[in-house]
Amino acid sequence: MTLDPVMSAERTRRLVDDLRAKPAETTWIEFKENNADGPLIGKLISALSNAARLADQHYAYVVWGVRDGDHAVVGTSFEPTVKKEKGQPLELWVANHLQPGIEFRFEEVDHDGQRLILLTIPAAATAPVEFDRTAYLRIGSATPRLSDHPERLRALWSKLQPYAWETGVAAQFLSGDDVLARLNYANYFDLTGQPLPDNRQGIFDKLLADRLIQKDVSDRWNITNLGAILYAKKLSDFGPSVERKGVRFVAYAGTGRADDVSHRQDGQRGYAAGFQGLVDYIDGLLPRNELIGKAFREERPLYPSIAIRELIANALIHQDMTITGAGPLIELFSDRMEITNPGAPLVSPDRFLDSPPRSRNEALASLMRRMKLCEEQGTGIDKVISAVELHQLPPPDFRMEGDAVRVVLFAPRRFADMTPEEAVRACYQHAALKYVGGQKMTNATLRERLGIDDQNAAQASRVIRATLDADLIRPADAERPRAGYVPSWA
């Protein structure tokens, strides 16, 4: 989130004083007076960016105008906006020689009448930062090649693997009052089952432990992307990059997007604060079907509540947060519901049911499970398929669409009205669900799942044959045809 100029200048001055207060240069802080050599700056950015990630820092810094030995402010004549390198503006020249690109930033600082220059360098995020195709590292006052220190290279890669959007900063340089005003902290304690501390320090200790906030310079605080996306009272408080991750819901009067919009809701609160309200809102819009059982009538929603809940939670957890301007989208049509989240899936959609769970947003997923907003790891899709089968709905369709994942839940339809493709998909999902539950699909279990009468067993046999021909299932025992069927990957 961008600070206003006055606040930004104040934060920068405090940051410089915090850096000067360090007893000595660290691997992610460098002090200089006037040295403004372009290649030297490029190597420093590579070295300090990589060193910052190793030191679990979000940023590294170079300050011109501070004496190295005693950190006294002496001022500098370095002017990065004027400096040229090989005929190009310095910033452009350095940026063109870095891979992957990072958003380093020069700032001029007025420190009690002395002119300083602060260079802020983001820590390496996805790969070691290279200058002229060589990655560097800071060790003491030396800047060696990273490849000359394989043990540190391995350590750096291990640090890079878990780096996630969640750890980024959504708002910075906030007072304690500002943090508590922007986050629904009472909701955090309530949903995680923790008693609300009776003092401010206890509240901040808990928020800090779950990485919802982090310390900034002086006595100020940052709110992380994780804290904002889960507990924001208003997502708009955190700028477009967070606000546009809000969940959008649109209901149409017919079967297509050209039909009139009957209801629309754009998520304004964090996921934790708004999740249950969203599920209840959608559930309240759904028509009810009257199920006539053996002894009583029962009204059921058009779609199972557990399926809606799990699919929305999955969309939140598995979305690619780095795709700008896009968030989860829920669309309700007269004949189906579509739930879309940005980002290509980490596993093939036809293996959602059985593959070990993988999430881009592990901290988000962990907190969602702790708050019981979704099922335990790896069981959500099982619950969805089970609920769909219990309601004898057409099989859900899990598919990739461009750089997004879309799941379609279909309104009730008899087996006779299903397409051949839907029948095959239902057979495959049924076999997979049986297999992960330690059982095997048979003609009888498939008939029950599809609502086929016993006297029409041949219809189930034709579906099984078509699914075999599609190489989605196989006999559990080739020598015993009645042993049942399992997914082809089993």
Automatic annotation (TrEMBL):
At the top level, the lineage of the source is: Bacteria
Alphabetically, the GO molecular function entries are:
hydrolase activity
Domain Schlafen AlbA-2 as annotated: residue spans: 25-143
Q: Which Pfam families match?
A: HATPase_c_4 (PF13749), SLFN_AlbA_2 (PF04326)
Q: Which keywords does UniProt give here?
A: Hydrolase
InterPro entries in UniProt = RecG_C_sf (IPR038475), Schlafen_AlbA_2_dom (IPR007421), Schlafen_AlbA_2_dom_sf (IPR038461)
Q: Gene3D superfamilies per the record?
A: 3.30.565.60, Schlafen, AAA domain
Does the record carry Transit peptide as a key word? no
- What is the annotated signal peptide range for this record? none
- PANTHER family annotated for this entry? GLPR-RELATED TRANSCRIPTIONAL REPRESSOR, SCHLAFEN ALBA-2 DOMAIN-CONTAINING PROTEIN
Any idea what this protein is called? Schlafen AlbA-2 domain-containing protein
